[in-house]
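Revision sheet: structure tokens.
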Amino acid sequence: MSMRTMTAAVLSLTLTSTSAAAGDGPWTPQTYGSDFSQTWHDGNAEMATYNLTYPRYGELRTGTAVAITVTEPFNPDKRVKSDTGGEGTHNVIKLNLVEDFQTGLYDYNLMTSVFVATSTVNGLPAGSPTKVSFSSQEWCGHVYQQALFSQHKTRSPGVRQSVHSYFETEADQQITMSYPVGGIAEDALIMWARGLAGPSIGPGESIDAPVYRSMALQRLLHVPGKWEDATLSRQSEPETVSTPAGNFECEVFTAEVAGVRTYTFYIDRAEDGDRRLVKLARSDGYAMELTAVERMPYWQLNRNADEKKLKEIGLERRGEGTM
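Predicted:
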């Protein structure tokens, strides 16, 4: 894995009206500069681990989540990491969210990848998701799906979603639908709260926006992908939050989606400006609480001797007889 240098800045997508209506207009992108570059182009990835609570089969399950946030060059045609840096290559900031939890005898292993463009690409403003992918592995089988986003007039505009599942009624699907102006992905809400994806809102403000339903919810609940109305809000005052990683003064962001589920994000206000996710709570019992966070080039740490690094991010080696 390689890191490329770009000129970038802490994302701030300006939306001037409080509680603006969804579809009022596209976001106003701003130039990326040195602050973003100093944090996200230092040759490392942010490795954050969390105590995970996941609702499944009518019960709350406990497990571990690892959130890997990193920048990389992206091929806008193939919608994958660029190996060659050819014409049209642009930069994205990527979240890989890995979630493991037990359900009785067997365990679930989930991974969601969110790719947010840091420049205007495919007709979408900087800070928009260009791709979201999801996979689930458990003892019954595995599934994979992805959605590609575009508002380009001639380059496959809209949302193109593919699904591959071991369930007969889902099997292999190719789905297309329109992309509403100002739309964002539910799976990108963590990045939105951190200021790594649009839209940006000030303290005490809120905005309505169409949100594309989470990939994990689609597959685990067996519901289709669709756009849903959401209200994104930022609390006017910070709160102090305690997790296994310590005490943090946090900005509080909420996202109410379709009137049926609400996310609350607690974002670290530390002076280093990294705006780490400290805690996430969803109204159905889903939750993440920070246990450790470090910056490191994890792709280089693949030798047996590097297992000692696991302790730095609150993890333990899986030994014989463990899954």
